[in-house]
């Protein structure tokens, strides 16, 4: 490459000679940048999601290839975050693919001293069985002659990381199960 061609390849010179005064078009491109492909170009599909870290509800685009999450970025269509994510939201890919991700549950039996590892399906079945058992044993059809149709056998305390829609659905679920003690951490 001769000296003249080398000088003409400078982005600043191209910025002024090509009419790209802001330097965001052709002036910012190079042979290397022209050969790059986006990290998300190989994805089979994009799934819309919400960042799980706080109650702001920043929208995310989750890129999936062969059933595996490959990349997560902010959703530019979101009126809440407009495509931006905080450092924690930007690192949320680690929640799904990171080596520290837990896919088993530690369980200690009543009066036990040791923890044992259970798979998620077994743990979910145990929770469902206990909820139904507590509902059945704590059911009150009426109290002092008034129809109540409720259970005092379990309660729910929600977390502040849930958005309004999740809290709404949880309230509906626990109300349908007959629970009356439903509260959220954000109100306490």
Round the Cα radius of gyration to an integer and report it.
27 Å
Structural class by helix and strand composition: alpha+beta
In N-to-C order, the SSE pattern is HHHEEEHHEEHEEEHE
Q: What is the CATH T-level topology of the largest domain?
A: N-terminal domain of TfIIb
Structure description:
With 188 residues, the protein is an alpha+beta fold. It folds into 4 domains: 3-35, no CATH class; 45-97, N-terminal domain of TfIIb, CATH 2.20.25.90; 102-133, no CATH class; 138-188, no CATH class. It has 7 helices and 9 strands. It has helices at 3-8, 11-17, 31-35, 87-90, 93-97, 120-137, 164-176, and strands at residues 45-50, 59-65, 68-74, 104-107, 116-119, 139-143, 146-151, 156-158, 182-184. The strands form 4 sheets. It has a 3-stranded antiparallel β-sheet. Strands 4-5 form a two-stranded antiparallel sheet. A two-stranded antiparallel sheet has the order 6-7. Strand 1 and strand 2 (59-65) form a beta hairpin. It is elongated, with a radius of gyration of 27 Å. The termini are far apart. The model has no long low-confidence stretch (mean pLDDT 83).
